Amino acid sequence: NLELVQSLAEKSKRGTLLGVLDRTLTSMGGRKLRHWILHPLLDLDAIQGRLGAIEIFFDDTELRMRLREALKGVADLERLLGRITSRTGNARDVKALGRSLERVPALRAAIAGCEAPLLRELHAAMDDLADVAGWIDAAVVDEPPLPITEGGLLKDGYHPDLDRLHGLVRGGRDWIAALQREERDRSGISNLKVGYNKVFGYYIEVSKGNKGEVPADYERKQTLVNAERYVTPGLKAREEEILTAQERMQQLEYELFVALRDRISGEARRIQTTADALAALDVLLSLAEVAVAKGYAKPEVNAGGELRIRDGRHPVVEDLMPRNDFVPNDTVLDPDKAFLQIVTGPNMAGKSTYLRQVALITLMAQIGSFVPAAEARIGVVDRIFTRVGASDNLVRGESTFMVEMIETANILNSASEKSLLVLDEIGRGTSTFDGISIAWSVAEHIHDRIHAKTLFATHYHELTDLGNKLEHAKNVNVAVREWGDKVVFLYRIVDGGADHSYGIQVAKLAGLPFGVIARARQILESLESG
């Protein structure tokens, strides 16, 4: 429900936290960022390490841009290495690996002076791999063909036997051109051609009008519609020599390439460690780039229990809106004062956005990222639980309400006082009195037994009594203003409980027919009067 890496509606990256934070420049970095988002940290030192590294790049624009520019040329080392070590990699894979490795020394040198502990670790983990890059540069041509068995992969000068065979093959081709000139002179046939195909090999082709002029040593090999093809004893001997050299050259080149590929595979651990460090560097640079572009702040993450956010924003919703249109809100959840917030207010006023933004800011802080807020103090949470939205599992015979209750049961049985709970509309899938009773009891249980930091959004205004009765509970609501029979949403979280849901006004905004709205008002007045 927090739509971390896939949106609920489109099942895509757009509209997700990953979509906002991903400015990585390599495929490795993109996968690493996704992993970080799905695996937030509990270790405070690791969180601080990431934050410290991002702060370096946040403050030093020139360094950040230089590193990002260098990363643009780095291919997917992990995938390339996988193909090479599994012996399916071709010469293009090897060349792409080599070109990428050539960029490592500059990247490594650029972070050599950085004092952040994590950047020192990444610097140490990166291997220049100049030897591997040198092997590849010395061996593989700049634009190798796709097949690895047909030659053309390796440079001149790489191996003396290969060079000798190359000379034979190239010399053979020169010999064919010279032979064509000689045979034209000898026979006097100006349009005589020397050619080759895979079926008949090398041949001398003479048009049928000139076949009476062919020399006596020509042997007919093939008859065409307009021409005859011949061979000579000398051409057959030379053909065998050239074709044998071609086959030996292709076989030797294949063997040399396989040997090079195996040699690179022997350095897989070094390459993999370097690739992992480059991926982490890419993610840190991406998070710094987003933080600068969107005005994120470095959170203070500690081992305490308080969660305090000033001017917090929902990173995804903000990203989809015109700049500066999002209305920020403060949040304070304090174990010693009020760790349970009862959040009331009308539909469409922003309750769900507020709940989710607190969860996302907390998660972002614990992946070591800057956060969309003016300030944030985050006590590390062990887990984030959400009960948001309506769904069913009819195949297993579970109604929407049953799914809601199963999820709520899992939260109540699994959460600890170190958890963050985000609960929206508990009990709404059943009758009003049943729903109120369940929601009330769940809130009391969290307050009395679990003591977890909790945002509890509800339309049951009766639950605002909990904000007054429970020692560590507090009422907040999403502010609105009434204008005649209309309601204006202010999207601000303020103290106190709401006394209206404004459901009929929202229904009117949605376009329900006028008669339905008028009749709903009559029924509401009747119900409220008892």
What does it look like?
The two termini are 38 Å apart. The chain is 50% helix and 15% strand. The chain has helices at residues 17-21, 27-38, 44-59, 61-71, 77-85, 91-101, 104-110, 117-125, 130-139, 160-187, 233-265, 268-294, 315-320, 351-366, 400-414, 432-450, 464-469, 503-510, 514-528, and strands at residues 193-197, 201-207, 219-223, 227-231, 300-302, 307-312, 329-333, 340-344, 375-379, 384-387, 420-424, 453-457, 473-483, 486-495. Helix 4 crosses helix 12 and helix 8 runs antiparallel to helix 12 (268-294). With 530 residues, the chain is of the alpha/beta class. The protein is built from 19 helices and 14 strands.
Give the structure's gist in a few sentences.
The chain has 530 residues and is of the alpha/beta class.
Secondary structure: elements and pairs:
Elements: H1 17-21, H2 27-38, H3 44-59, H4 61-71, H5 77-85, H6 91-101, H7 104-110, H8 117-125, H9 130-139, H10 160-187, E1 193-197, E2 201-207, E3 219-223, E4 227-231, H11 233-265, H12 268-294, E5 300-302, E6 307-312, H13 315-320, E7 329-333, E8 340-344, H14 351-366, E9 375-379, E10 384-387, H15 400-414, E11 420-424, H16 432-450, E12 453-457, H17 464-469, E13 473-483, E14 486-495, H18 503-510, H19 514-528
Parallel strand pairs: 5-9, 8-12, 8-13, 10-11, 11-12
Antiparallel strand pairs: 1-2, 2-4, 3-4, 6-7, 6-9, 13-14
Helix pairs in contact: 2-12, 3-12, 4-12, 5-6, 5-12, 6-9, 8-12, 10-11, 18-19
pLDDT under 50 segments (min length 5)?
none
Q: Which percent range fits the helix content? A: 40-55%
For the termini, the CA-CA separation is 38 Å
The major beta sheet can be summarized as: 6 strands, mixed
The number of E-state strands comes to: 14
Structural class: alpha/beta
Strand residue content: 15-25%
Rounded mean pLDDT is 91
Tell me the strand order in the biggest sheet. 10-11-12-8-13-14
